[in-house]
């Protein structure tokens, strides 16, 4: 005998209705999403600072991997020396790359504290941080 609409099936919700463990899981997922959004907003105001070349260049990068400032120490600049200009360019590239890497690490740690490692599940493509 088949059960009609009044039967005791899954309630049309695939087991994730408003009550029981499924409802609790949905609330946890929604809270995690809210926490992740708040963390993303907070990262815009958090920064990392990188100094290269013995203090020749200092760079500040936000948690969103945006360069906020670059400071070149005027005491070490010699623009009349072509070799120094090349070195300065190399130092700028190094500083930007280090700043971005440190900013990404900071963001990943923040997301990891919220998701508890869920961001590394294959197939999610970084959707969780």
Explain what the structure shows.
- This protein is α+β, with helices and mostly antiparallel strands and about 130 residues long.
- Helices cover about 45% and strands about 15% of the residues.
- It has two helices and three strands; from the N terminus they run H-E-E-E-H.
- Helix 1 runs antiparallel to helix 2 (about 80-115).
- The chain starts with 19 loop residues before the first helix and ends in a 14-residue tail after the last helix.
Query: Which class in CATH terms?
Result: Alpha Beta
How many DSSP-defined strands?
3
**How does the helix and strand content classify structurally?**
alpha+beta
How much is the radius of gyration in Å? 25 Å
Quick overview of this protein structure:
This protein is α+β, with helices and mostly antiparallel strands and 129 residues long. The chain has helices at residues 20-43, 82-115; strands at residues 47-52, 57-62, 67-72. It has two helices and three strands.
Comma- or semicolon-separated keywords:
2 helices; alpha+beta; 3 strands; 129 residues; Ybab, Chain: A
Give the helix/strand layout.
Elements: H1 20-43, E1 47-52, E2 57-62, E3 67-72, H2 82-115
Antiparallel strand pairs: 1-2, 2-3
């Amino acid at each position: 005998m088949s059960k009609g609409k009044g039967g005791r099936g899954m309630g049309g919700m695939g087991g994730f209705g408003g009550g029981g463990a499924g409802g609790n899981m949905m609330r946890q997922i929604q809270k995690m999403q809210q926490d992740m959004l708040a963390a993303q907003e907070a990262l815009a105001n958090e920064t990392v600072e990188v100094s290269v070349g013995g203090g020749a260049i200092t760079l500040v990068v936000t948690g969103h991997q945006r360069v906020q400032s670059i400071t070149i120490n005027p005491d070490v600049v010699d623009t009349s020396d072509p070799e120094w200009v090349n070195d300065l360019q190399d130092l700028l590239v190094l500083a930007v790359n280090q700043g971005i890497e440190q900013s990404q690490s900071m963001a990943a740690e923040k997301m990891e504290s919220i998701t508890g490692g869920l961001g590394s599940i294959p197939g999610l493509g970084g959707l969780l941080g």
